[in-house]
Amino acid sequence: MNFLPTKIVLRIFCFILFGLTVILGCSKDDEESYDAIETSAMLKKTNAVAGTTSKINVAAVIEGSIPTSAKAPATIAFKGYGSINQGQIKSYFWDFKDGSTANTINASHTFKKAGEYAVQLTVKNAAGQTHSTTRKITITGSSSSSGSSKINVAAVISGSIPTSAKAPATIDFKAWNSVNQKDIKGYFWNFNDGSTTTKKNPTHTFTKTGDFVVELSVKNAAGETHSTTRNIKITGTSTTNTGSSSGGSTSASSSGSGSSGSTSSTARTSGNYPSNAVMASSFGFKSGDATAAFEAAINSGKSYVVIDKQSSDWVIRPTRFFNLSNMTIVFEPGVTLRAKSGAFKEGARLFKLSGARNVTIEGTGATFKMNKNEYTSGEQRHAFEMDMCNGITVRGLTIRDSGGAGIKLMGDTNSGYCQNIILENIRSLNNRRDGITITSAQDVWVRNSEFSGSSGTRPEAGVVLESDTANERLVNINFTNCKFADNESAGIHFSTNKMNGGSRSVSIKVVDSEFSNNAISPPSGFFPTEVEVGGGNGTSVVGGEIRFERVKFNGSRGGIVFTRKSANGFKAVFKDCEARNVVTSNSISPIRMEANSSRNTLGGIEFDNFYIQYNRDIPFMKIQAPSKSGNFDVKNVKGSFTVKEPGDNPLYYKGGYQTSKNVNVSINYKHI
């Protein structure tokens, strides 16, 4: 009896449940796990029984404020309330891997011993089918054990690391999120393919197939070590078959349509991809201009399209695709989708999706590349734009050298917007305007991604969040485990000038991420800072919240936070953040609040447990406010800071403002 290939079953079921997954699994404001979302969105279990497919209709999702590491005894609250299709879940089972279990939907557990624990949640439906997911937690030595040696560091592996890739696979590994980096005296990576390195953030190429357990060990001054691992599966190489075919079928045959000389096709066995996959090269790849084959493949109506690696890049002219739906597009490792030189006028896009629905783009090891050096004016030559799309997942792409934004998410100027967008393991580098622009979107998750090196035309930021009209929206926008570095201006630029009190409230969250070496040389009118929080236009300010949690600022040239926001409207929150070695090139306060002439208040911001270290004799925070008699207030500002700087300078008010006019202002700090 013949069964459908497992990959096809998985893909079909994934599309059916995709919308439900996003709504039920991703709509909460709580921090969400990369592993949990990937599990709920992509890893639905199927069982082939007597020629039919039995689909499990539930999926486990672990949520909650769960640290990657903690000191014993550590009491942690685990949440199962984000699990998929809760109405069909009949039981929950937690295994904490230390001998303890629980069978409640949400469980609180205390880890008493040091070790690495892969906490597992299993859910079961009425048919007895189960689905499981895990969350890894490192518990370090107990802080209460007198006389015992306590290790004060912990290894954490981050970066755009796929779970699988084809050889040769070049992967960037990062240790920048390891715990207590200032106390780490050595890093050691073992790739378990015969290669090792002592670099902090290495790049490694796997040339052979196999399952590799990559291990990172960190060492403190006492010589104590802590290790963690990441599993990577390297599959067979994608090679061009230059010999004669002796009966082996290929899904990339040109069917007689290819022309000799300028057209090539890569032969590969049908087992590499689902049987319904179509190879883009089969539409007649031409090395000098592959636009026709590229467009024909994507518009072919096939549900699985592979942009297969050729002997040269996929060079294309501007492209735009309308209303694609329920399909997967794979850019093979080593593929470069390159902008044709001289073909991109201002406003042209390398790859644009309009009105797409339920499309997955797999791009691990592939690159979208434009020709930034050609674009000496303008800001609208974007590499990858999504316009009013819903249910788009993009993984693994490197996007670089655009004449505008690396990625743009937009709607129309009325009420249209992008929705349910997942961007994972993306690297957006060296773009002329910014790494990513979001003007109108809702329910966006950006994980394990990097936005670096923007330069050329304002605002020159890593991320730009700014709507073009009051009708657009920035709702439930999430960045997790991302890096914003080496941009000419801010790592994140948030502007609400076109919004007002009647706009839909904003909700933006940046967690477990790092800012480094931004504000290299900001354009005129932009403050040298890692994060710029705009204040709106006038006194009618959009409501909502922008929140930064467990964010690290490392090696900043300028300040770390700059805002002119009114105390009215949205709130800005910085919780459990730390800044080290900042203001290295500018004698400005790390945190600066500045009044705007069009507003009568300054504030609406909270700093909760913020550590700041720098080497300049300047105040850690400056509030510049006017002395308007009776017409201006600093309002709704709270802060708790620990500051290490050479002068032990106090909080500084400038501009003639009298602090007696403060309303609900409480800023506490201590110098160490």
TrEMBL record:
InterPro entries: Beta_helix, Ig-like_fold, PbH1, Pectin_lyas_fold, Pectin_lyase_fold/virulence, PKD/Chitinase_dom, PKD_dom, PKD_dom_sf. Coiled coil: none annotated. Residues 59-146, 154-241 form the PKD domain. It holds the Pfam family PKD_4. Residues 235-271 have a biased composition (Low complexity). Residues 225-234 have a biased composition (Polar residues). Residues 224-271 are annotated as: Disordered. This is PKD domain-containing protein. It comes from Pricia antarctica.
